[in-house]
Amino acid sequence: MGNSVWKDTWLITVRNIKTTLRNPFSFIPNLIISAFFLLVYEAGLSGIAELPTFEGANYLAFILPVSIVSAAIGGAGGAGQGIVKDIENGFFSRLLLTPASRLAIVLGPIIAGMLQLLVQTILIICVGFLLGLKVETGFLGVLFVLLIAIGWGLAFAGYSAGVALRTKNAQASQSGTLIFFPLIFLSTTFVPYELLDAQWLKIAATINPTTYIFESMRSVLIDGWVFSEMIQGILAIGIACAITITFAAVSAKKAVARG
Fold first, then answer.
1. Is residue 127 helix, strand or coil?
2. Which 3 state secondary structure label does DSSP give 37?
3. What is the rounded CA–CA span in Å between residue 19 and residue 256?
4. In what residue span(s) does the ABC transmembrane type-2 domain sit (predicted)?
5. Other C-beta atoms within 10 Å of 250: how many?
6. Domain that holds residue 83
7. Tally of domains in the chain
8. Cβ-count burial of 21 within 10 angstroms (0-12 exposed, 13-18 middle, 19+ buried)?
9. Which segment, 44-58, 178-192, 226-240, is predicted with the most confidence on average?
10. How far apart are CA 9 and CA 101, in angstroms?
11. Apex CA 218: angle with CA 215 and CA 221, to 5°?
């Protein structure tokens, strides 16, 4: 049974990846926008790094996680779009008539969305290196950033898949992921926590999981191996994945029940 689930998941994941590659314009715009923001942030805001609070840190390394997280929100939404497309063309209903694992039917698009984000993150980091990015912890630090990006992408893909299964509507699925964009700006997006003036914004940043994602990435990019911040980021991802994948699983169960 276990082998069957993994085999079905692999086959459905590969199918979703091939579908995405046939239509590259489904992910290229999001990649271009994330890289563009990185260029704009670095060119327009890098002077902030001269403030004493930054202690001479490279602003490019500080802002890189913002581009990665924004790519996660846009890119992982492809999981939901793929499910809606399968529902609309009848492929989802045909899958339900096969012996394929119901869990695999949901996990396939989610994993494909996560892998799509992995490729996007690697390309964004490459752009960062072309702009002069320096990573304090070297290659292992880059691997940790990729690990965090994969986890965050998995969480968003789970949410996107859940919304798609609930609504069975492409526009609703796409709109559902947009509500997460405010999370980016209610965080330590452009400046450290100490430079946030408004008290309400400090409170929002404290309870915002995106803050801990940013800080975990920045710790390895700028400060070195700060394990307390790294663990906070990992915990934030673990909680988010548990919530969103459970949401996707419950939504899939109801979708299967409705046929």
1. helix
2. helix
3. 23
4. 25-255
5. 13
6. 2-258
7. 1
8. exposed
9. 226-240
10. 8
11. 160
